[in-house]
Input
Amino acid sequence: MALKKERIQKEGDLVDERLRHIAFIMDGNGRWAQKRGMPRSYGHSVGAETFRRVAEYCRKIGIRYMTVYAFSTENWKRPPEEVQTIMDILTDYISKCADEIEKENIHVRFIGNLTVFPQDLQDKMERIDRETAHNPFCLNIAFNYGGREELVHACTALIREGKTDFTEADISERLYTANCPDPDLVVRTGGDMRISNFLLWQSAYAEYYFTDVLWPDFSEREVDAAVAEFYSRRRRFGGV
Output
């Protein structure tokens, strides 16, 4: 039975096994800042706070897995000052996670081609992943991530293992999101209706929810609206 939007907004804890994993394409930070006469980098700073708030809310309402598209393999093409701001936000977030690793009930994972980052930053990411792995809410932060690159990564791993014939399960087990269920719902903010190379394999049967709301303005109420829309749909997975 579909859940009413009003009930979700009122009680905030009505998700069930049908909605275990929600993914976000966090779009609109730069446009949000420009509309206010501010540099695009300011929008990313505000968007980072939105990310923290949304992650905490998803955890509270019972979502078990959350994946966010923080920085794609194509985002290196952006202006250098904007890229640097995003890198600074990532570094600051990682430092805070490392210092406060026991305070949050979250398993933080960094997914993507992380080899481009300095070794000390990679080590911190690995440590955070390892030392928070016991926590029940899994937060995947996709950084230097691209869906096509991820598939190449998985197939290359299989070839290196000497496999010449493999299954869908073999590929899934070598993706950056291995050990996480596929997303049930993918939310894109900012008004664009495309998937932008995000979770190409994993989202084969995900429900998509698009909103014109720019990411810095995305609120708990907006999460409720996306969840309500998800529960209003009938998922057939290729059946009838």
